[in-house]
From TrEMBL:
InterPro entries: SusD-like_N, SusD_RagB_dom, TPR-like_helical_dom_sf
Source superkingdom: Bacteria
UniProt KW Membrane keyword: yes
Domain RagB/SusD: start-end pairs: 291-564
Keywords: Cell outer membrane, Membrane, Signal
Domain named SusD-like N-terminal: residues: 103-195
Signal peptide range: 1-20
Full protein name: RagB/SusD family nutrient uptake outer membrane protein
Cited CDD domains: SusD (cd08977)
Main location per the UniProt record: membrane
């Protein structure tokens, strides 16, 4: 009997061992092999489309993305905000801690991973028996994303290795040198020109909203050419070595580069489809509108509100107040007459600082007294939104308001569309204005700025100039356009790169950062005092980002940017 029991136990044990062996995974169970993705019998191309959808994930987003977890806005590294929390990674850009091993936004690995995925898609999609028209469109989408990823590298580093359609294996030589700035710009522009005709024509249907339309390719081309024509890249590079100078820009200035930027912006305008939204804040809370050319898609949520609204709004609506806009940004907003607050004729009152201001201020920054969730924001010392003590709260007297719906009379937040705008029509008009001004067509440039200010709610004023002086010269309009971009495109990740391409970062980012201290008397009288909350520092080498250290050690043919 014991013998029979022993045999029975042995059989059971062997069976268990056998079943255990069968459960061993030699590859992830959720990994779909290539022969399934590129299935020659899949007429709906289901898995191939999943593969393409995944490529979209490599497009950069925005909002609170710098740093791990709930991060910070990139604009907090450009003087328009500071983190409400102390010692955050985004501050490396303003305190000199940035380095080749300490860059919170390198984007190198992500870009090349995405480029590789695009190349795999292009090499295999023809095997899938989808319609010819669908395959043409999908290829154009993938190539656009690849061009976009190269632009993300270009604006950070200058010229980078261009790998074309090649899919590298471990047996290939991966020690590729950098292409020049000129070659990289030409590649991006050429790709945009090739794919634009094959992308979806506007209007894009509701079920395809968020996919790349024709206008996005023209917008990327225009932004690339605008950057290429700008002072830093157009013969004004800070590199002293001739090789590095060609990698990070054009060695010599060429005025005709501005005309290329003019033409690209005009091409997008000529589509006669995109238009400014009548109400500024609608751009950011209406999922589909004619001002958005392309946005990073996400499901409706309350993340922007919960991460950035004033901290005094607790249960059931918790707000963390992670972003503190600076007084530097607030002061950039004109009065509602379009005049700088430093203008003696503006009527600005330092003790009533938010009265009669550019209406965009109220939907970009929370200021003291602004209504939100059925009460007024209190950022005076000791107020519910600046209570003091050891909690995260505003360090400047302001909180971020942009990208949020109007919750002034709500009791709690509701899910909203929070798709980060990658390209929108207002940027195109500002690109057009900037390039027109640089080719000497100053009054034509004024017309574009007027369209932006009119929509913003600035008063028409004398001769319907919306605060723009009659007979304004090129230099003054250049400064005005730069300021207009700052307020119109605030927190959309333009300012960080604009001050670099304009080559003004040494002046604008070597400066004190200010906030507003508000005190309330026993009788309720408020007193406003501008106070310094920090100092931003900038060195010339920060005009270009350092190539990641691990990339330059793996690939000795990569020339590091000067100063790193």
């Amino acid at each position: 009997m014991c013998k029979k029991l022993y045999i029975s136990v042995l059989v059971v044990a062997l069976a268990m061992i056998g079943s255990a062996c069968e459960r061993v995974e030699t590859e992830p169970r959720d990994w779909i092999k290539e022969d399934l993705v590129w299935d020659e019998k899949d007429r709906n191309a289901t898995l191939a489309v999943f593969f393409l959808n995944d490529i979209y994930n490599f497009i950069p987003g925005g909002f609170n993305r710098i740093g791990t977890g709930n991060g910070d806005f990139l604009d907090a590294g450009a003087g328009d905000a500071i983190p409400s929390r102390i010692a955050r990674p985004v501050e490396y850009y303003t305190n000199g801690f940035i380095s080749a091993v300490n860059n919170p936004d390198p984007y190198w690995g992500n870009s090349y991973a995405g480029i590789r995925r695009v190349n795999i898609f292009l090499a295999n999609i023809d095997r899938v028996p989808a319609t010819a028209a669908s395959i043409v469109t999908w290829k154009a989408e993938a190539r656009f994303i690849r061009a976009y990823l190269y632009f993300e590298l270009l604006k950070r580093y200058g010229g980078v290795p261009l790998i074309g359609d090649k899919i590298f294996t471990l047996n290939d030589d991966l020690s590729l040198p950098r292409n020049t700035f000129d070659e990289t710009v030409n590649y991006i522009v050429a790709e945009c020109d090739v794919v634009k005709a094959d992308l979806r024509k506007e209007p894009v249907s509701d079920n395809e909203w968020g996919r790349v339309p024709r206008g996005a390719a023209i917008a990327l081309k225009g932004r690339t050419l605008l950057y290429a024509a700008s002072p830093l890249f157009n013969g004004g590079g800070v590199s002293t070595d001739a090789t590095k100078k060609a990698l990070t820009g054009y060695p010599t200035f060429d005025a005709t580069r501005w005309q290329k930027a003019v033409d690209a912006a005009a091409e997008l305008i000529a589509l006669n489809y995109y238009a400014l939204q009548p109400v500024y804040n609608n751009i950011f809370v209406v999922k589909k509108n004619t001002e958005i050319i392309l946005a990073k898609q996400s499901g409706n949520n309350t993340s922007i509100e919960s991460l950035n609204a004033p901290v005094g709004y607790g249960s059931p609506t918790a707000s963390q107040g992670l972003t503190s806009p600076t007084q530097n940004l607030v002061d950039a907003f004109t009065t509602d007459a379009g005049l700088p607050i430093t203008d003696a004729a503006s009527g600005y009152n330092p003790q009533n600082p938010y009265a009669a201001r550019d209406p965009r201020l109220a939907v970009t920054v929370f200021v003291n007294g602004q209504r939100w969730l059925q009460r007024n924001v209190e950022t005076f010392d000791g107020g519910r939104d600046r209570p003091g003590g050891n909690i995260v709260q505003t360090r400047t007297g302001y909180y971020l308001r942009k990208f949020m719906a109007d919750f002034s009379n709500n009791t709690t937040y509701t899910n909203q569309s929070h798709n980060f705008p990658l390209f929108r029509y207002a940027e195109t008009l500002l690109n057009y204005a900037e390039a027109l001004n640089e080719v000497g067509r100053t009054e034509d440039a004024v017309k574009q700025v007027i369209e932006i200010r009119k929509r913003a709610g600035i008063k028409a004023g004398t001769a319907s100039r919306y605060g723009i002086a009659s007979g304004i010269n090129q230099a003054d309009l250049r400064a005005l356009i730069q300021n207009e971009r700052r307020v119109e495109l605030a927190f959309e990740e333009h300012r960080f790169w604009d001050v670099r391409r304009w080559k003004i970062a040494e002046a604008t980012l070597n400066a004190p950062l200010f906030g507003m201290q508000i005190t309330r008397s026993a009788t309720g009288t408020l007193t406003y005092n501008k106070v310094q909350v920090g100092t931003s520092i900038f060195s010339k080498r920060l005009y270009y980002m350092p190539l990641p250290y691990d990339e330059t050690t793996k690939n000795l043919n990569l020339v590091q940017n000067e100063g790193w």
